Amino acid sequence: MAARGDNRVLRKPVFVKVEELKPGTEGHNLVVKVLQSDVVLEKGAATSSHLRSSRIAECLVGDETATILFTARNDQVELMKPGTTLVLRNAKIDMFKGGMRLAVDKWGRIEVTEPATFTVKEDNNLSSIEYELVDVAND
After folding, report:
1. What are the backbone angles phi and psi of residue 72, rounded to the nearest 5°?
2. Containing H/E element for 88?
3. How far apart are alpha carbons 102 and 95 in whole angstroms?
4. How much is the pLDDT for 136?
5. For residue 63, what pLDDT is reported?
6. Percent of the chain with pLDDT over 90
7. Buried b / exposed e across 46-59, counting CB within 10 Å, b at 16+?
8. Which residues of the chain are modeled with pLDDT < 70?
9. Rounded to 5°, angle at Cα 69 from 63 and 75
10. Which of 80, 81, 92, 118 measures 20 to 30 Å from 58, CA to CA?
11. Does residue 37 come out as left (phi exceeding 0), alpha (psi in the -120 to 50 range) or beta?
């Protein structure tokens, strides 16, 4: 169980539910079902060869506890088909216009898995909760 020839022991991933997500956190592993996917930005091939095209989709994903908007970028957009069950590894919470968005960056992973047996709880959307940054004065 050593990783790359050293003495580190790999830990088993700890999976959380969508309702447990909090603003500004990262390192989440989740199993979610895609409910809908809408491409919000699609830039074609750039005029310069070293720049690549950009695609961004906002996808509503969830589990049996809640739903949240997931921001899919570039190759991730292809995986976000409604009805697909995904395993998100090392996901993070980004704040956008006061609401939470789930994202997986280059340090994370998205895997398509067998269809989930759970029914998504659609009436608890965590992205619709607006958060406000408050400064706490130290007396």
Report:
1. -95, 135
2. strand 85-96
3. 9
4. 77
5. 92
6. 36
7. eeeeeeeeebbbbb
8. 1-6, 42-53, 139
9. 100
10. 118
11. beta
The per-residue b/e assignment along 106-124, b for 16 or more CB within 10 angstroms, e otherwise, is: eebebeeeeebeeebbeee
Amino acid at the residue 56: I
Q: How far apart are CA 93 and CA 104, in angstroms?
A: 9
Distances (CA, A) of 69 to 3, 4, 38, 44, 51: 34, 36, 11, 24, 27
Q: How far from chain centre, in Å, is Cα 135?
A: 28
Q: Which residue, 69, 65, 6, is CA-closest to 35?
A: 69
**What is the rounded CA–CA span in Å between residue 44 and residue 137?**
48
Separation between Cα atoms, residue 43 and residue 56, nearest integer Å: 9
CB neighbours of residue 42 within 10 Å:
11
AA identity, residue 28: H
Q: Is the dihedral of CA 14, 68, 59, 100 positive or negative?
A: negative
Look-up of token digits 């956008």: 96
**What pTM does this model have?**
0.78
